[in-house]
Each structure stands twice: as C-alpha cells, then as structure tokens.
Amino acid sequence: MKKLSRRVALLGVGGAVGWGLSGLLRPDLPTYAGTNRLVGPSGENILDDASGLSATPIHKHLHVSDSDQALVERIRSELAEARVAKRPLNVGAARHSMGAQAIPRKGTAITFENAGIEIDSANQSFRAHAGARWLDVITTLDPKGWSPKVMQSNNDFGLAATYSVNAHGWPVPYGPMGSTVRSVRMVLPSGELVTCSPTQNVDLFNLGMGGYGLIGVVIDMEVEMVKNSRLTPTFELMDASDFTVNYKKAIEDSAVKMAYGRLNVERESFFQKALLITYRETNDQEKLPVAGGSGWMAHAASRLYRAQLGNETFKSFRWWNETRVGPTLGGGEVTRNSLINEPVITLDDRNPDRTDILHEYFVGLDAFGSFLEASREVIPASYQEFLNVTLRYVAQDDQSVLSYARVPRVAAVMSFSQELTHRGEADQARMTRELIDRIVEIGGTYYLPYRPHATIDQLKKAYPRVEEFARAKRQLDPELVLCNNFWDQYLGQL
User: Fold this and answer.
1) How far apart are CA 164 and CA 96, in angstroms?
2) Which residue from 13, 46, 253, 472 puts its CA 20 to 30 A from 394's CA?
3) What is the pLDDT of residue 330?
4) Does residue 325 or residue 340 have the better pLDDT?
5) Distance between CA atoms of 175 and 59, rounded to whole angstroms?
6) CATH classification of 112-227, choosing from 3.30.70.2200, 3.30.465.10, 3.30.565.10, 3.40.50.2000?
7) Higher pLDDT, 228 or 312
8) In sequence order, what DSSP letters do the residues of 7-53 get, joined into one string?
C-alpha cells in the first residue's frame, strides 16, 4: 500500500488542482461539470457508452429491426438524409467501447435489433444479421452441435461490432474474429451495396475489419464455425517470467482448444506469478449438454473480484482462490459454448461513484518480459485500482489495415476501477500514456476501443498504417457521413 499512499499524497484529498482535463479531449467533445466529480449531461438526445464518461449529444437514436433489402433501403435513406443535413451517422450494438467510438456527435445513431441467423453445416459457417449478438449465435448453433470459431469472452456484443473492432477471443490458435469472416455485405457511404471478402473487394474488407464503422454499414455477414466439444481444464501455476514459454507450448499443442492466463495483482508482488489455464477435448464427445453459463461459480468469482477494491488482503485471497481452490471446484468438464456464453453483467460493479475501465496491450511473445517490467513500474505507482489482467493469444493478422497483431502476440486485457472524479480521469490518462510509450517502445500496440487518452503521435507509432486508413476513408466518404468520436478526435486530425 505504500505506493498508493504516495500517489494519494501527490493528488491531494479534495480536488483536482493540477490534474484537470485540459488537453485530454478536444474542446468540442464531451466534458464534465463540477469541481471534482465527473457529471455528464443527460437527456433523450444524449448517448453514452460502457465507460459512463462519453455522454455525447446526438440528433436521434434509431432502433432498426429490418432485414435484407428492407434494411438496405432503410440505411440508404438514413445516409441520404444525414448527407443532406450534414450530420454524421454511425451504427453500434452494445456500445461497450469506452470513448464514444460508436457514437456520432450531433448525428444519427443506429442500433440494429434483428438477430436472424442461418446455419450452413456443409460449409461450416453461418450467416447472421449485423445486429445479432453472440448470445443469439450460441443459442442457434449449440443445439446443432456448432460453436463460433472466434468471439470475445462475453456474449453481449454484436457480430458486426466485433468485426468493426476486430476483437479477438481465447480459442487457440486463431487470430482476431475478422479472420473468421468469409464475407460481409455492407452499404457504403454513397449508398452502394457491396459484398466484401478476403477475395472480393478485398481493400474494403480489410478497411472495414477493425474500421470502427467508418467504411460502411454492415448488413449481414458469413462467419466460420467449429464443432462444439466437451473440454476439461488444466491449471498451471508458475513464475510470470516463465509464462510465454509454457503458453507457446500450449498453443502449439493441437489437443489444446482454449487457453488463457492470469497474473497476480497485489501491489507488493505485482505481476510476479502467472496462472495458465488450458482446455483439452475429452474422450467422450457424445450428448453434449445445452450451453448455459458458468453459473454460481461466476457470481461467486464476481463477489471476490469486487472485494479487491482498495483491499490488498482480498487481492491476495482472490489469487489464492484462483490458484488453489478454483482448480478443485472449477476443474470439471465443460463445453466450449458454455465457456464463452457469459454476459458482461456478471462483473458489473453497480457503484455510481466508480466505473470499470479496460486497457488492452499486445506484445510479442519474446517481449513479454519487458512488458512485465514496464507494467510493474507504471501501474502500481498510479492512483488507479487494478483488479485483473487476462492473457490471451492472438495469431498474426495481415488483413486489417489497422492490425494490432502484425506478428503473433500476447494480449493483456486489463481491468481498472476508476473513481468518477477529475483526478481519477486525469491520473488514468497520465498512466495510460506512460504505458503506451513503454509498450510501443518494445514493439507492441494498444487496443483502440477504449478511453481516448493516447496522443495522436502514439497512435501513429502503434499503428503505422493509420494515415493510409484515413486517406482511404476520405476517398470513400468525402462528405464524412460515417463518423464517430474516433474519427473526430484522432483520424480526422491526420
């Protein structure tokens, strides 16, 4: 706790003197009133995201349930209206981004609500409406014995949104979800309907993958699936410095179907130990149970997760529970679909004075030691409450123009609990920038869907093709109809 106390002393107890938000956001983007607590605007024409810090004025928010040609015509109509009115338009799903990446300022926000899904077992793929959530996919595929090839670890997110942020999961040895998309139908800013794939309109496909909805409005998509299977876990505790050696062996083992890691988060022994969890198929693959979720185990873990807040003893207890008790109680057989069929709400903090903030960094396996060193020096010295880090593998991605995995990477998904004050936000920004500098220095990247604290220079260093993306966007959409905060604050400045 000593480092935390020093940080508290530096920040002061009462206000944000010297730690205001000046320079963190452009003046025309959302700011927050009050002497210390962050209070965003509210009302019918205000839209926010998962951070609770992105309250943004919009013109209107449409919930659209059309499909096929009716959806195409509806989108064309909305694009034409937005173009004439010189208002931006953007489509979102759960809006679990954290910097208004799915919100068009003073524009038209659209949420799709159709969940239509068709299975093509012969081709091991499914076609889904852009508005389908992964829960809808699992519910449809599971009774037929299929499972998504790659998706996030939670089922709340939309399929088109996953493609648009090019999210990854923890099945191995795959790359981001976009690498499992066979084709996408999208309406371009001009109103033209195009089909894109790795072999058709390839440039558009690669721009849209991780393009944050700036290239076109996705109508539907064909995505790869694999057989669902019964799995059994193995838990291995080790020094953090040995993690990538063991992780690489697991990834190269064809028997391993899913794998992830954890690091301990107590400040005094921060990131010194690692836990590697791998799942292998069992011999019995008959009569798989219906995919549920992790049930009471997830809710019990959630209570421990929240009890860590400001409590180093509970952080140590949670690590002991994960490495000693968890393997005993949670070491039974489970299906692939059940592992990924978990909502975000399981870990919801329900605390009006705090918000959960995610970071994610991608580093090469050979740079993992340097990543540990950088994290140990930067994170515990901050004012932030660090709750968790999950380690996942991402195979090389040569498709997306804004690729975060130009070589195979370890993804470190970090969770912080941030107080909703000016000093909390300012310290979060300072810490984020320090981490990004250190990660980029060792050849890594940071993920773009989170808080907009990186500088434009950091963005250019982490994503060397970002200016190419911005040029292509302007050529495709000269009137800048498809826009969001990501464009306003970053790409539009290039």
Assistant:
1) 13
2) 472
3) 67
4) 340
5) 37
6) 3.30.465.10
7) 228
8) HHHHH-SS--TT---TTTS-TTS---BSSSB-B---STTEE--TTS-
